[in-house]
Amino acid sequence: MASTQGVNVLRYSALVAGLVYGVYHQSSITSTAKRAEADREYARQERLIEQAKAEWKKKTAPQDSKTSGVITDPEDSRFDLEAFLKLKAGEN
Question: What's the pTM?
């Protein structure tokens, strides 16, 4: 009868050890997944911030005469003489 008690203790000990290991393993998997999700969210926010900075820079950058949208080539079919003259008058 003593041997059956020893076997039962061994069985229940193995069962408890398996349950403890399972809980530990599941918590480590869950924490790894949460950490990966947090890293992805942080990277997404960094990309959004960089895009916002680029858009702000583009919006607030002073416009040069080359970027004002006026075509200065008289051979171009979209050349606008009036806009060109206003641009040149504004430079003086």
Answer: 0.52
